[in-house]
Amino acid sequence: MSLPDIEPVSRESTAGIIARQLRDAIMTGALPPGTQLGETELASRFQVSRGPLREAMQHLVSEGLLRSERHRGLFVIDLEPGDVYDIYSARSAIERAAMLRALRGDRKKVADELEQAVGAMAVAAGDDDPTALSWADLRFHEALIAASGSKRLMRMARTLLIETRMCLTALQGTYQQVEERVTEHTRIIEALRAGDEETALSLLEAHMEDAVQRLAPGTSLREGEAPAVP
């Protein structure tokens, strides 16, 4: 039976909607690191009772995006050098696995998809739009992981990419020329398209290492020893 006019029914709960909006606000920096979340104010802004709000915030605590302080409340996490190391170390492992799958699959298809994200990065760089540039940067890495076809890699990457978006906000000011970010991603695509596994993996590793050194000077993924995470 053909039912072309029927659309999926959204069953997202009130807590789920609140969690999504808070997550987006953390990702974009609208709720900066260290911000305290007040229940009364947020319940009023969302026009909900405290029950679903508390449920939503606990979701974000479990995801590691909020931290709880006894007798003080909930705060947006601060990304210390140890956190930056941890995020990019985990991302490096996930994206390396995704790249290997991409190299052994339909390289052209994956490269074409990644080029769309890099094209958006180039436009954002030309328009001097750092927010759009960061979103396009994130889409590149989401597309690479999605191309792996692994639900588990995508699930593991979900929270990491939210934390990465927080890092990208800080990363924006470390480039003298934003075109550098476009070039880094373009070279990764070229190696992927050519099927050059060694170069593709090396460039991906260097890309992660560069971000860590910009965000946490003196920290290196290559040294194999993480700084302390508070």
UniProtKB/TrEMBL annotation:
<keyword id="KW-0804">Transcription</keyword>
<dbReference type="InterPro" id="IPR036388">
    <property type="entry name" value="WH-like_DNA-bd_sf"/>
</dbReference>
<dbReference type="InterPro" id="IPR000524">
    <property type="entry name" value="Tscrpt_reg_HTH_GntR"/>
</dbReference>
<protein>
    <submittedName>
        <fullName>GntR family transcriptional regulator</fullName>
    </submittedName>
</protein>
<dbReference type="GO" id="GO:0003700">
    <property type="term" value="F:DNA-binding transcription factor activity"/>
</dbReference>
<feature type="domain" description="HTH gntR-type">
    <location>
        <begin position="12"/>
        <end position="79"/>
    </location>
</feature>
<dbReference type="InterPro" id="IPR011711">
    <property type="entry name" value="GntR_C"/>
</dbReference>
<dbReference type="InterPro" id="IPR008920">
    <property type="entry name" value="TF_FadR/GntR_C"/>
</dbReference>
<dbReference type="Pfam" id="PF07729">
    <property type="entry name" value="FCD"/>
</dbReference>
<keyword id="KW-0805">Transcription regulation</keyword>
<dbReference type="GO" id="GO:0003677">
    <property type="term" value="F:DNA binding"/>
</dbReference>
<dbReference type="Pfam" id="PF00392">
    <property type="entry name" value="GntR"/>
</dbReference>
<dbReference type="InterPro" id="IPR036390">
    <property type="entry name" value="WH_DNA-bd_sf"/>
</dbReference>
<keyword id="KW-0238">DNA-binding</keyword>
